[in-house]
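Crash report, auto-generated. Payload:
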Amino acid sequence: MADNKFAAYLCAGCGLGDTLNFNEIEKIAKKEGKMPLVKRHDFLCSAAGVQLIRDDIETEGVTHVMIAACSRRAKTEAFDFPGIAVTRANLREGVIWIVATGPAHDEVRQEMANDYVRMGCAELKKMKVPGGVANSGSNKRILVVGGGVSGLTAAIEAAETGYQVLLVEKAPQLGGWAARLWKRVPYREPYAQPQDTGMNELIGRVVAHPLISVHLNSTLAETAGAPGRFAVKIAQDGGAVVQEMVGAIVQTSGFTTYDVARLPELGGGLPGVVDQAGLEALAMAAQGKEFKRADGHAVQSVVFVQCAGQRDTTGIHLPYCSGHCCATSVKQAMYFKDANPDIDTVLLYTDLRLPGMGEDFYRSAQEKGVTFTKGKVSGVKADNGGCTVSFRDLILDENTTVNADLVVLATGQVPNSGVNIELPEEQQSEVKPISILNLTYRQGKDLPQLTAGLTDSHFICFPYETRRTGIYAAGPVRRPMDMQQAVEDATGAALKAIQTVENAALGRAAHPRSGDLSYPIVRLEGCTQCKRCTVECPFGAIDEDERRFPVFNEARCRRCGTCMGACPVRVISFENYSVDTVGSQIKSIDMPDEFSERPRILLLACENDAYPALDMAGLSRTVYSAFVRAIPVRCLGSVNAIWITDALNGGWDGVMMMGCKRGDDYQCHFVKGSELAYYRMSKIDDTLKGMGLETERVASYEVAITDNQKVAALINEYAAKIKEIGMSPMKGFN
Amino acid sequence: METLPMTRTATSHATPARYRNHFLKEVETHVEDGEWVKMCMQCGVCAGSCPLGPKWEHTPQKIFMMIRAGKREEVLKSDAMWMCTSCYNCMARCPRKLPITHIMHGIARHAHNLGFTPKAQPTRHFSVLFWKNCIKNGRLNELKLTIGLYFRDGLFAGIKQGWDMRNVALGLVLAKRLNPFELFGGHGCKDHKGIAAMLKKAREIEGQRKGVVH
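Recovered output after restart:
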């Protein structure tokens, strides 16, 4: 870019003009912020105000714009100038709405506004206009891995939206478990009767669709590349390998039923005991007529045992609830009652979990005469050609038994997640799981796993998202679920895949910074090959070359900046977000002296949750300390330790960091960002002691987007704490 | 129509298979509103709502579960349905809208019909006394009903109770709320024959509906 021209626009609307001294602000923008062009407007987000900026861009050649008005989260459409670097000084939500009203507070209020203008100008000076990734792939074909109900749905949804689909299925036929069901649970009112699965029709539509090509008896031998340019090798049973290019991947590898042989105490292996899948096979054979066991014995009585090998607290079996099994057992109990109402059908449960309209389905089964009994089963034994089920009746509070010709165990879904990449090779279970994707990423062959071997998912906010950009997990592989949920999941994942291929083709980021044109740029000549960026990247975006330098796959990157926060030599930056854009803000403020009793607290706030919460505090006019200066960061993971040391060396009295909840039930948009930040900051105490500072001068907090009252309270508590420990002795040295 | 074991002794030696539908089916056919029992979802709101809950052997929730578990004798011998004061709390609160009070009364009637209930069961005794008193003349003779209750535990106990209550009785007489001459016959009603015919018809209809003649 040849000539950068900077300009500052000051808005006096929304009460800003009445509350703040704009002559002073204007002077600061000119003199300290070194803005050659400073303009004031009474209503900047109006058509006339926006036109003022547009005209300057057009005629004056302005390339960099600092807007001192409301929060950067407000009026985003009005202040959207493509190709122009824009930053905002938050004088409304960040100053006049949160500082106590009245002339007694005029001085601190004005100081706060002045500092935000200084910070805005300083940031702008360091910003560049992001240009987008140049060498991103533009392949828009979508690969679906697994041809069960989830995979078929993802394929048909993507194809009907106009995208080419490659469907790879390990088995010789499509349909998965769903095609082996006699009937499915009803989706619609009156929720009374098991329904036809519709799988034949779905399979027919997929096979006939001109945009879908199906590979049966096939697995993935290798997956390399990034969104828009994945290169996959499809291995067929015969040994032939086909290479194909795809833009995004939907993994719908489904589940395996929990092995009943692992439940000998519940009769696993007895001729009179089947699991739910086994019962579907018997129902297929019965075709709505008389039920017979595999050994030919006619079934006159049947007992369903819920939660078999699930919700286990001993650590032996599945720890989770598979969600669908209660409704499935209710449906299967109806098979018997519909075939012959005189068959004694008992369902033993500890909690009957039939969310939503499942309650109507349950009621319908009761009307058909299925006996529901709250009881905990202790054992199933062979008895006189049938089985005896021993259980504790939890209503009658007694140990009792019931006899049946057939016992159905409601076992759970075990996800087909492939290899657990976080376990060392020698700790993989004895039967080595086979990789599903065979990724060539340095982070491992498959998607990461969450608890209990379930495939990765940002389960709180973005369920189909995994930590491998452009690869989406849908269906029971990521969480146990029924057919209806799998259909919804697969549809969502297909749309995510489409979003990714479109963004990749334009060189833009995928979710959650969808459309972002900035990307990490590394100055390799300064790199010390420490590998922190490659190891800490939550998304596996960075590989290593043969000299152990990082290789950035920009299309896999989510632009969180965790690599930037990790880099000890600070060689990683984004065009519009870097160690300098934040560092210069920290250095730009007017620092009062040690005896002023006006401390300065730096607040690094996650832009996804903490910063919106601060804005909300402003919106509700919640007063918090005017000594705080907030800087939004992409993620706490992007916080580089140099910012903290710079701030403390520069005389700041305290540093607060607000990020998202971490741990197993994390809420971080970037999964590991806040966790890494907390981990890094746990090491900062030594640095503080080395500087002769109190360890309280750096503090981290977990906040959620809804914590608008809490953020204000935390700031006030921290300001009180700083008052207690006193002003920093580091002022006035630079 | 299946034949029901009509007395206590007839079933006391039998141990029917548990969690089979036979007793539930008996309740459905022979107990007023019995077809609702299978719809109970065992939430326990009835048990928690009953003001006399802790005083009974079994709450409605348990009675319904016992029926489904096939515990015929335990249900029919329970005091639960006799302890119901018909406050209708359970029925008003049942999320599945079961007519619980009616079912409890129906089970009581069924147990009584089959002879499972001890003669001395106070509610049963009072109900029988009341009913017989009522249908005799087509209207209730309160004096005879009261005296009948007083002498439930024998002659001496009856005289003592009467003596203890003499002031109340005298007050009622003076207030013209009690006529001592009711003891000798008492009032009838306008169409005693009509009432008798009505009751006969009601029994007939009930017998048809439940498939049983008493």
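Post-recovery validation: Chain B has two domains: 17-113, 122-209.
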